[in-house]
Amino acid sequence: MTKEIAVRETPAFRRGVAMPFFAKIFGLACLVILTGGLPRAASAAEGAASGASSGSLSQGIAAVVNDEIISSYDLNQRIKLVFASSGIPDTQENRDRIRPQVLRNLIDERLKEQEAKRLKIEVTQDDVDRAFKRIATRSNMTVDQIGEFLKKNGVNKSTLTQQLRTDIAWNKLVGQQFGSLVSVSDGEVQEVLQRLRDESDSPSYDVSEILLTFDNPAQEAEIRNGAEKLIEQIRKGAPFQAVARQFSQSASAASGGDIGWVRASQLPAPVAEVVKNMPSGTVSDPIRTRNGYYIVQLRAMRRGSGADPLNDQYVLMRVLLPLTPDAAPRFVAQRAREAESFRASVKSCDEASRKINSYVGGKADRPRTVLAGQLEPRMRKAISGLKTGDVSQPVRSNAGVEMLVVCGYKPDEGGLPTAEQIDDNLYEQQLSMMARRHLRDLRRDAVVVKR
User: Comparing C-alpha atoms, which of 256, 224, 251 is closest to residue 87?
Assistant: First the structure.
């Protein structure tokens, strides 16, 4: 039976597969949840409708994957999405720099798509709709606003739709094919737990990662070159989190590369040696491991197992009083008064879910569990110091006036992870390794021609 794994559930461990629900809630940088890249773009008719092209093939062929074409239109759409979601400036120089890695990701996604089709993995429209709603919730946008954002940046919405289908199918495939083969013994869990006890006074590091893998020595130079170009863009200001989502081949890509607080022994040996000597707030050069290159961002370092406020756990209910972005001041003022009235009358989440309906258009989301560090800074500030049952100060957004109701709160106690958390982490590591091996086999057996 496949496990459901959440993102950064504990300070020291990641537990994520693709598409976690809270991966920087309310952050626009979470618009795109790419674990590898965007596959097939819009059809020729859609391309003509959007003004991009009279047909994707008319712009040439970028690659052929087992007799299926990746057109230049596909590639250009994906490059536009990289720029739109990562903050990398859209210049010809940058296009030339990232093109090889973007094309490689497109090829991988076409292979995933073909394998899912072969194994008759089904993705329903409900699956896709839920994925869009998750993106919209995390981005503090509506689904329609996501479409507008893509259109503004020259990306056809069908491109993202197809990517989501491929991403969902691959995760279903990995779970169905390999989930039952993963076995984590009590002995393995206890071994890790004992090692962490022995290292309780040693430093821990708050780390994010990007992993770029290669299948044979002939690809190594290309992958290292790609890693160096990504590092250059990150050091010029591109958000590490967004670049990780676009390019990393680690399971942590879904959470922007974030693996939380870890000790050196939990990292690959070459990575650990670099991290131990890095200043906080810096990004490493490419780090060579057996099958790839890591890029590591060190956010902070601490000694011992002290509590971290960013790992405080909240159960939050988001409530909304809708307003259009261009609402007249008198309507904004009216909503502000309603928000204050609501805050004064609510003492629990049960009350909140009932009373919000008394306001025109008012609605409440289901309560969700999230770590403080996963909240947008202004929302984290809004709930700071609140007790269970309290309602945050109202915050104006594109959707209207938003508030968070605290349904539960558990402060971080520091210390060691539980046996269950270690078990989940080991399970995720093994499942991720099997997925990478399967993709490697698909690459090996594929006939790929790049133009």
Answer: 256
- Reported as a single tens digit per residue, the pLDDT across 24-72 is 222 333 333 333 333 333 333 333 334 433 344 445 999 999 999 999 9
Q: Are strands 258-263 and 203-213 parallel, antiparallel or unpaired?
A: antiparallel
Query: In what helix (H) or strand (E) does residue 75 lie, and over which residues does it extend?
Result: helix 72-86
- Beta carbons of 301 and 280 less than 8 angstroms apart: yes
- Work out the pLDDT band at 414, boundaries 50, 70, 90: low
Domains of the chain listed by start with CATH number: 28-180 (1.10.4030.10), 192-307+415-446 (3.10.50.40), 309-410 (3.10.50.40)
Q: What is the pTM of this model?
A: 0.61
* Cα–Cα separations (whole angstroms), residue 433 to 250, 426, 440: 9, 11, 10
Contact criterion met (CB below 8 Å) for 163 and 424: no
Largest CA distance in the chain: 66
**Per DSSP, which regions of 177-242 are E strands?**
203-213
In the three-class reduction of DSSP (H, G, I as helix; E, B as strand; rest coil), residue 62 is classed as: strand
Least Cα distance to 57 among 36, 83, 82, 76 occurs for 76
Residue 223's H or E segment, with its range, is helix 220-235
User: Could you report the per-residue pLDDT of 423-439, keeping only the tens digit for each?
Assistant: 988 998 899 889 999 99
Please give the backbone phi and psi of residue 299, each rounded to the nearest 5 degrees, phi first: -85, -35
Report the C-alpha gap between 358 and 338 in whole angstroms.
10
Contact 409, 388 (CB under 8 A): yes
Q: How far apart are CA 399 and CA 323, in angstroms?
A: 6
| Rounded distance between C-alpha atoms, residue 95 and residue 79, angstroms | 7
Neighbour count for residue 61 (Cβ, 10 Å): 17
Whether 290 has a pLDDT exceeding 80, the answer reads yes
| CA-based end-to-end distance of the chain | 42
